[in-house]
Write a structure and sequence with these properties.
ten-stranded mixed beta sheet; TIM Barrel; two-stranded parallel sheet; 13 helices; elongated; alpha/beta; about 35% helix; DNA polymerase, domain 1
């Protein structure tokens, strides 16, 4: 189903907005709760399937609204249960979503933008820059698509991480709406404490997010213990250096009571020496913080290589000895090029984007 100009995507609306939308159509406001259950709880694809709505209302909705959906273009399955999906959007652009299996259930890593303008040196999703922001519905559809994959197993997504392609705080309003829509009781009903937002370090966005009153987990991509090295790896640091970023993180922890996670991707010979470990201890001492050490997923277009397993353990040990709690992230999807942007670039290298546009007009797989 291709989006038609002027139609309303109902998945972009809060419950009260949905009630008002229905009221303008002459329908009872309680129908909004029924719509939410159909859209999110059952994941239907057409208004005709909403059997507890009057036929006249279903026909009217089909005239003024549409139900968005993603088309699966490709998937890659890892030996550890990780699955990366490449989905086509209504306009023919493509985004990645990753399903991760943990002992507590399934988490989904969603993209918030097509591409990214942060230009981090080790990331595949920044190659080619930012194409456009995603709408809240396009983020929700990633979770719903994975729920559809899990439904035959009697399972569903329990956690969401905004850690795919894109900088969430660079698409602030849409991301905030997405997070609140995730929490709808009759919808996906994912608790705020089961949502993690990862940022490259947009300090004003962190401060703004702290004032929203949402107890979500904040993860900050740090990747370096000083400005010189971080400037090199992450150009965003030139705009919001550590002297501005860390106080914003401290403010977030103070106002939300939530410990901030600092992500640190270990790159061989770049940021993984004992010197950098000790410097990181000094940088984070006194903060309500936790370090998540991430073995680098190599990207063929980049020159960087991952730190050895022994080097990762040494780095973690030095942080612990310095009083900084740290964990080593389980390597997920290393055998399927799970780093952000890799599957998208691989498929786009094999087919023109116009071919993906054609795929959006086909029936879903």
């Amino acid at each position: 189903m291709v989006k038609e100009v002027g139609l309303t995507n109902l998945k972009n609306l809060y419950s009260d907005e949905l009630e008002a939308f229905l009221a303008n159509l002459g329908a009872e406001r309680f129908r909004a709760a029924q719509l939410v259950e159909w859209l999110y709880g059952r994941g239907i694809q057409s208004f005709s399937e909403m059997t507890n709505l009057p036929v006249a209302l279903r026909s009217r909705l089909a005239e003024v609204a549409f139900i968005s959906r993603l088309k699966k273009l490709a998937e890659a399955k890892g030996e550890d249960g990780t699955i990366k999906y490449l989905f086509a959007l209504e306009d023919g652009q493509a985004i990645e979503t990753v399903r991760m299996k943990y002992r507590y259930g399934h988490a989904v890593c969603v993209s918030t933008q097509v591409g990214c303008r942060m230009a981090c040196r080790f990331c595949a999703s920044t190659i080619g820059g930012l194409i456009r922001n995603l709408e809240p519905a396009e983020m929700l559809d990633q979770v719903l698509a994975v729920n559809g994959e899990l439904a035959p197993l009697g399972q569903r997504v329990g956690r969401v991480v905004l850690m795919g392609s894109g900088e969430p705080l660079d698409n602030y309003e849409a991301v905030l709406r997405f997070i609140r829509l995730l929490n709808l009781a009759r919808g996906l009903n994912i608790g705020y404490r089961h949502i993690t937002l990862s940022t490259s370090g947009v300090a004003p966005g962190i401060i703004r997010l702290a004032g929203e009153g949402l107890p979500i987990t904040l993860a900050v991509s740090l990747h370096a213990p000083n400005n010189e090295l971080r400037d090199y790896l992450m150009p965003i640091n030139r705009r919001y250096p550590l002297e501005e970023l860390l106080p914003a993180c401290h403010d977030y922890a103070d106002r939300t009571g939530r410990r901030v996670t600092f992500e640190y991707t270990l790159i061989r010979g770049v940021n993984d020496s004992p010197r950098e470990a000790r410097e990181l201890v000094r940088l984070l001492s006194g903060h309500l913080a936790h370090v998540n050490l991430i073995p680098l997923n190599p990207v063929k277009e980049r020159e960087f290589q991952p730190t050895s397993p022994e080097g990762v353990r040494r780095f973690a040990r030095l942080l612990g000895e310095g009083g900084i709690p740290a964990t080593i992230r389980r390597e997920l999807g290393g055998d399927i090029d799970a780093a952000c942007g890799q599957l998208r670039r691989k498929v786009l290298a094999e087919a023109r984007l116009g071919d993906l546009k054609d795929a959006t007009d086909a029936e879903p797989k």
